[in-house]
Amino acid sequence: MDFLAIQAALREDKLDGWLFYDHHNRDPLAYAILGIPGGHVTRRWYYFIPATGEPKKLVHRIESGRLDALPGAKAEYSSWQELEAGLEAMLSGQARIAMQYSPRNAIMYVSMVDAGTVELIRSFKKEVISSADLVSRFEAVLTDAQIATHYEAQRKLDAILEAGWREIGSRVRANSSGTHEYAIVQFLQTGIDREGLITEFGPNVSVGANSADSHYEPTAASSKPIGSGDFVLIDIWAKLARDPQAVWYDITWTGVVDREPTDRERLIFNTVRDARDAAIAAVKDAFAADIPIAGWQADDASRAIIRAAGFADSFTHRTGHNIGTELHGNGANLDNLETHDERLILPSTCFSVEPGIYFPGEFGVRSEVDMITRASKAEVTGRMQTELVRV
């Protein structure tokens, strides 16, 4: 935990303090930000970092050592009356308190504190403020070393994906019965393992109508054949296996096997590509001009292109998600559909840009790239698909 950095952030945001609370490991963000283990947590604990001054702890006497690894004065409780009195004393003199809370549960990724606890804090005449942007700052901002791991994964995974497309073509032309989704998953997985990468729940190879299911997962039992004339979507993600602080790389490409795309496929791909590029441009322009941009704004830029083309109802998910040491990280998502994500896209963060248009029973197109931001610059980190792959 970077205690001084947290205090500086609180003062910058005009907050009086940040109150962390947990019971039964309900708030993984608290443990990650404070840098302490979870474990067997059977009693409530509270940790308050004021904008200035010494932190304060409130722990149950049965688990009195729970926060001993952290700096600050410790108070203990046993009864609920002691708890409430101790908590009120802990927050004495403070007015605006950040917590893992989101008004109307708008950003559910940070909404870890139960309503009753928020009610209790408010009963002390405190204003509870969402910690969403603070969480982004201390969970999503990457070091230069972490960013380097992303680019190393990018170089390896781009090559694996390119080999995967070639393998589909080779197998289809070598065998009249073609290949199948899970066989190509295994081929890609072998490449991931060989290059010292790890993945989870994937990769995903979807043929035909399966490409219209944005969370389709082929298995050995359910795998569908891939043959001449088919439409294929490949979604692949990985990070370096050797480094627990490594950052994921996550991409999606689409293509056709042994034929030219139809006019409809070209139209849908071009619309998705242009929507992707609109979100990219919105982020790039904002960072170049040093203008703050929130996740919902980048989503709007992408969604406007698809809406104008008449396919709004077929774009059924957010435009992108934060990426860090977890594939779906704790920073701003590009989202004004599933949530209204008001979190700012911060410098030195990574996220996907992946609009899609899906026609159930027919086919779907998603085009996914990753971006990394710097103080006055934002860039796409890997190859960008500009037309449907032909294999």
- Structural class call reads alpha+beta
% residues in beta strands: 15-25%
CATH topology of the largest domain: Creatine Amidinohydrolase
How many helices does DSSP assign? 9
CATH superfamily descriptor of the largest domain: Creatinase/methionine aminopeptidase superfamily
Number of distinct beta strands: 19
Strand order of the largest sheet: 4-3-2-1-5-6
Instruction: Summarize the helix and strand pattern as letters.
Output: HEHEEEHEHEHHEHEEEEEHHEEEEEEE
What is the CATH class name of the largest domain?
Alpha Beta
**Could you describe the largest sheet, including whether it forms a barrel?**
6 strands, mixed
Could you list the spans in which at least 5 consecutive residues all have pLDDT below 50? none
Mean pLDDT: 96
Shape: elongated
Q: Could you say what the CATH architecture of the largest domain is? A: Alpha-Beta Complex
Approximate helicity band: 25-40%
Radius of gyration, taken over Cα atoms and rounded to an integer in Å:
24 Å
Offer a concise description of the structure:
With 391 residues, the chain is an alpha+beta fold.
Structural notes for this entry:
It is a single chain. The chain contains nine helices and 19 strands. With 391 residues, the protein is of the alpha+beta class. The chain has two domains: 3-139, Creatine Amidinohydrolase, Chain A, domain 1, CATH 3.40.350; 144-390, Creatine Amidinohydrolase (Alpha-Beta Complex), CATH 3.90.230. The strands form five sheets. It has a six-stranded mixed β-sheet with strand order 4-3-2-1-5-6. The longest helix has 31 residues, at 144-174. The chain starts with a helix and ends with a strand.
